[in-house]
Design brief:
Blueprint lengths: L2 H7 L21 E7 L8 H11 L10 H12 L3 H12 L6 H19 L4 E7 L6 H10 L4 E6 L6 H15 L7 E4 L7 H18 L4 E7 L3 H5 L4 H15 L7 E6 L12 H10 L4 E5 L8 H17 L4 E5 L6 H12 L7
Parallel strand pairs: 1-2, 1-3, 3-4, 5-6, 5-7, 7-8
This protein binds the ligand C=CC1=C(C)c2cc3[nH]c(cc4nc(cc5[nH]c(cc1n2)c(C)c5CCC(=O)O)C(CCC(=O)O)=C4C)c(C)c3C=C and fe (ii) ion (2 copies).
The site of one fe (ii) ion has 2 residues, from loops.
């Protein structure tokens, strides 16, 4: 047999007696938990934001118009202006450890790891971002290098949307498509109604009100989506309403203070309504002076919560005559949520642990 053939197709020459020996045990190794969040720029600079937005907004799951038209609009109109406009907004919220979305997501991953370990589970948790760093590929590499042959992907979005959850799933599957020896894969689709999630939100609200008193209204502001995508079958709106309904129930009588709105509209199309900022402006004009706002769809504070809600929406509400605007932070590094998140994740590990 020609040498090149033997060396490229066969393993190293094998000891002929080796087949009679007991093969090494093939253990499944620890369970891998891949937490996936959206992603954020590496630095609050226009060039870094341009790279991030270029990747994010080129995802056909996010912008559902033909790529050849969209890429022209993106490159000519959006990536030439938006990054420079966003840089000072990111600078205002930037933390010592980096972008808040990354800092809080990392702490959540560490919290889940700790709780699973404390329960005696042989699990490794890694964080991957759908756009930017740390990438999903790097996170899966890390899990595989720790010996994980079974990986549960947990998109960090309680409410399912094609533009967030499905693209994370697609990306993990695309990574696996390049592998010969694939790990076993599982995915959590949504946890909008999970008691651990609802109770963590309710506890946060109750503790805040116990300390600082109740407002006239509590606005739950979810990230918006183009209305068309929901009409075409995206279950996101229903998921948001499930969360709002359950949180209302969990808060009992005080649940009546809850209202729902949608934020972060992008582009000219009609998005899910009511929109957050116009709602707050209208409330102030109607004589509502005290509001609390929280963003239950975001597990980690980020540009959309810290800047858009806590700064822009506050200014808008006060400018129209509102007197007290309080923003309740996301679950971030809440230790009770870390335990709840671990418990919720554990439910999807049946048969693996
Ligand atoms: C068509 C565009 C967008 C859709 C659809 C969309 C859905 C969506 N996004 C999140 C969560 C986040 N979005 C964030 C930032 C952000 N989102 C869009 C556009 C769409 N989002 C843009 C252009 C940006 C960048 C900022 C801006 O230019 O305004 C972030 C924050 C990232 C950060 O760095 O802090 C998050 C998180 C969800 C949950 C969602 C669908 C439900
Ligand atoms: Fe977004
Ligand atoms: Fe935004």
């Amino acid at each position: 047999m020609p040498k090149f053939f033997a060396s490229s197709y066969l393993p190293e020459p094998v000891d002929p007696h080796a087949f009679n020996q007991e093969p090494p045990p093939r253990l499944p190794g620890p369970v891998g938990i891949l937490l996936v969040n959206l992603g954020t720029p590496d630095a609050p600079t226009a060039s870094s934001i341009r790279r991030y937005l270029g990747e994010f907004l080129s995802d056909p799951r996010v912008i559902e118009i033909p790529q050849w038209i969209w890429q022209v609009i993106l490159r000519v109109f959006i990536l030439t202006r938006r990054p420079a406009a966003l840089a000072p907004r990111y600078q205002e919220i930037w933390l010592d450890g980096g972008s808040p979305l990354l800092v809080w997501s990392r702490l959540q991953a560490q919290g889940v790891q700790k709780h699973l370990q404390d329960q005696g589970l042989d699990a490794r948790v890694a964080l991957g971002m759908r756009y930017g760093n740390p990438s999903i590929a790097a996170a899966i590499d890390e899990l595989r290098a720790s010996g994980c042959q079974r990986i549960l992907t947990v998109p960090m979005y309680p409410q399912y949307a094609a533009s967030t959850t499905a693209t994370a799933v697609d990306h993990v599957a695309a990574y696996a498509a390049r592998l010969r020896d694939q790990p076993e894969l599982r995915f959590i689709k949504r946890f909008q109604d999970d008691p651990a999630y609802i109770q963590a939100l309710a506890r946060q609200v109750r503790e805040f009100w116990d300390q600082h008193g109740k407002p006239q209204r509590l606005l739950l502001s979810f990230h918006g989506l183009p209305r068309r995508t929901v009409e075409q079958g995206d279950p996101y709106y229903r998921d948001c309403m499930d969360t709002a309904k359950l949180l209302r129930q969990e808060l009992g009588q005080d649940g009546q203070l809850i209202h729902v709105s949608f934020q972060s509209r992008f582009g000219a199309e009609r998005w899910l309504e009511p929109y957050t900022e116009p709602t707050l402006r209208q409330w102030a004009r109607d004589g509502i002076t005290q509001v609390d706002v929280m963003c239950p769809g975001f597990l980690a504070d980020c540009l959309e919560t810290l800047e858009e809600i806590q700064m822009q929406c506050r200014d808008a509400f006060l400018a129209e005559g509102g007197q007290q605007f309080r923003y309740l932070p996301c679950l971030n590094d809440d230790p009770v949520w870390a335990a709840g998140f671990a418990a919720l994740i554990r439910k999807s590990l049946g048969g693996w642990v």
